[in-house]
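User: Reviewer 2 asked us to show a designed sequence for the structure in our supplementary figure. I'm pasting the structure tokens here. Could you produce the per-position amino acids so we can include them in the response letter?
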């Protein structure tokens, strides 16, 4: 099947997470006994207890999840997108599904909603714009290879996989099957490393998936954990032997991208950061948009778009840009 005949630009696989964003002072944050900037998995009871300590009026809810945020960015730029995940038959699930449909994102079959709790993440945002996440996966823990919509995946130009899925055996089986289907149907594969914990705990299956992928997205800390590199230069040298193509985001210091024979070390746009949630997700979504439209976008233009949109998202309260992003094209 030729790429031009594909119906969808991107098929994303990841956790459907309803974000509960709350701004807190440093003193308030310290009372929670959490590591700033970390992501901690919590159970349903812990989630309930944590929410009891927060004012309901201080919570802003938006549909999210790492790959979901990237898929949303793609959709808002005009790409045709689909998303594979598990959404619960609860209040959060109803809101999540409505938001995704409003954005024109196709929620893949065989079933749109499932019995159980939709995943959620309580995101504490401190005055320095750092976000600390306490995440209840809910029914996301049940996602497996049977959740895969092979017809929709086969009819997509890119598959984008969330690294958090490596944390379960069923998730790893899903990734393996998705990559297999992609190879059989001329679908390019992009992979997000997602978190240092994922890289450290599941390096062997992750490395295998990297070998089978066309592109990986990583921040510098994740890349250091994956390689034996201690700085960007040494990380890049090792990644060139591990991955076909890759992007390493560097926060306020910009990014490094290697696509084919081209490579670009780009500066970040200067901005006042209010909330770093979703910056990397927005970057990767915009970057993929540029690759999908490579007849119009050079690598330099692709990186510039991704950097611009990432700077826009960190300068606002929300974890994604809720505007028509086509104005930035």
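Assistant: Here is a per-position design you can include in the supplement:
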């Amino acid at each position: 099947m030729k790429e031009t005949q594909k119906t969808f630009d991107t098929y994303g696989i990841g956790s459907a997470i309803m974000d509960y964003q709350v701004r807190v002072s440093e003193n308030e944050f310290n009372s929670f006994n959490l590591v700033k900037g970390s992501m901690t998995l919590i159970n349903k009871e812990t989630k309930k207890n944590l929410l009891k300590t927060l004012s309901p009026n201080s919570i802003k809810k938006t549909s999210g999840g790492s790959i979901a945020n990237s898929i949303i960015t793609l959709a808002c730029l005009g790409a045709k997108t689909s998303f594979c995940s598990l959404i619960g038959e609860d209040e959060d699930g109803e809101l999540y599904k409505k938001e995704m449909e409003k954005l024109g994102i196709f929620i893949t079959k065989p079933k749109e909603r499932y019995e159980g709790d939709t995943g959620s993440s309580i995101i504490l945002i401190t005055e320095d714009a750092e976000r600390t996440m306490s995440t209840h996966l809910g029914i996301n823990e049940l996602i497996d290879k049977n959740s895969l919509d092979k017809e929709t995946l086969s009819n997509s130009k890119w598959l984008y996989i969330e690294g958090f899925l490596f944390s379960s055996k069923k998730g790893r089986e899903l990734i393996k099957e998705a990559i297999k289907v992609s190879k059989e149907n001329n679908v390019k594969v992009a992979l997000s490393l997602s978190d240092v914990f994922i890289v450290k705990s599941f390096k062997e299956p992750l490395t295998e998936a990297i070998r089978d992928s066309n592109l990986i997205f990583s921040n510098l800390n994740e890349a250091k954990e994956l390689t034996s590199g201690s700085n960007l230069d040494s990380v890049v040298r090792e990644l060139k032997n591990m991955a076909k193509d890759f992007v390493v985001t560097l926060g306020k210091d910009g990014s490094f991208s290697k696509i084919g024979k081209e490579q670009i070390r780009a500066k970040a746009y200067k901005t006042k950061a209010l909330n770093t949630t979703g910056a990397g997700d927005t970057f990767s979504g915009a970057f993929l948009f540029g690759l999908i439209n490579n007849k119009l976008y050079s690598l330099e233009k692709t990186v510039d778009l991704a950097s611009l949109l990432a700077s826009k998202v960190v300068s606002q309260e929300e974890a994604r840009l809720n505007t028509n992003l086509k104005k930035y094209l």
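For the response letter, you might also mention the following. The chain has one domain: 3-17+65-118+144-328. The radius of gyration is 18 Å.
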